[in-house]
Amino acid sequence: MDKLKLAFYWAASCGGCEIAVLDINEKILDVVAKADLVFWPVALDVKYKDVEAMPDRSIDVCFFNGAIRTSENEQMAKLLRQKSKILVAFGSCACDGCVIGLGNLWNKEKIFERAYFETPSTSNPQRVTPKTHFKVAQGELELPEFYDTVKTLAQTVDVDYFISGCPPPVPRIIEALEAILNEKLPPKGSSFLLNKSVCDECSREKKERKIAQLKRVYEIEDDFKTCFLDQGVICMGPATRGGCGAQCLKANIPCTGCGGPAPKVPDQGAAMISAFASIAADPKVLEQVVDPVGTFYKYSLANSILRRRVMRE
Questions:
Q1: Which domains does the chain have, with CATH numbers?
Q2: Are 76 and 9 in contact, with CB atoms under 8 Å apart?
Q3: Considering only CA atoms, which of 84, 67, 70, 56 is closest in space to residue 17?
Q4: pLDDT tens digits for 22-44?
Q5: Of 205, 258, 288, 306, which residue is 20 to 30 A from 5 by alpha carbon distance?
Q6: pLDDT tens digits, residue range 179-230?
């Protein structure tokens, strides 16, 4: 039988998802036995023009990690959608926008102003900012356009499957690859994470205490058994999709929400605010949250009902 043709692409993200693929360890041997990698810029010398020359739908499965921040990201998302039979949103950036999506609190103008004029280490007396076209002696240089708004992969093209996480949990990556290699895929639109919340996987005891004071994790004497919320520490577990095995909580670190919205939760941040308010002894406890958007929408602002801040002159 002909081998499957797989592709990986890295858009607006940190690169952690690329490393996570290698964390499957010896399972990679099962993959290479049944599939060939035809496009993976971080590992193979394959050019965009090579992908453009491929027949449509000739790539069996493409794992696309990263949000859509630039015109290049969007162009490649559309090209790989055209060339792939199955497109998988791989990781929090592709699924929900992740930390990059917090850029939606500003626009291109404000971001450039901060990055190129205001930072203490920047010296830019001519106030130069990136341009999409710039002429030099050798010809004209071209850069991708930096968009005002960060979008998820599914807000840009049709997506077949999702596997969130920052990065995706290794057991879920293995399950996804095995489902693909053995042609046992779930219905289109499914997530390869579990249909449960992180709380469902957490072994910490929930005592339903009312919170009178919000605390940071270093301010408590953790007994390693009691729910972080019961100790006054924000934990995103109730609003976050499980499948990670609650590995952060096992390391005594509260969940920060990288799995994206829990099943049947349309807005992760709103769901967590509601859950937190239900155990607050007083509404004013919510006022103790220093960075509400960065706390409750750290990974999902671009994929939330809010999407972005409205910028007005």
A1: 4-99+148-181 (3.40.50.700), 108-147 (no CATH), 198-303 (no CATH)
A2: yes
A3: 67
A4: 888 888 888 889 999 999 998 89
A5: 258
A6: 999 999 999 999 999 999 999 999 999 988 899 999 999 999 999 999 999 9
Cα-based distances in Å from 273 to 123, 210, 251, 295: 41, 15, 24, 10
Which tokens sit at 19? 């490393």
What is the Cα Rg of the chain in Å? 21
* Torsion angle of the four alpha carbons 160, 165, 167, 169, in this order, in degrees rounded to the nearest 10: -90
CA separation for the pair 198, 229 (Å, rounded)? 13
From the list 84, 34, 89, 17, the residue with the least C-alpha distance to 57 is 84
Residue 69, token pair as written in the block = 């921040």
> Residue-wise over 172-200: b if at least 16 C-beta within 10 A, else e?
bbbbbbeebbeeeeeeeeebbbbeebbbe
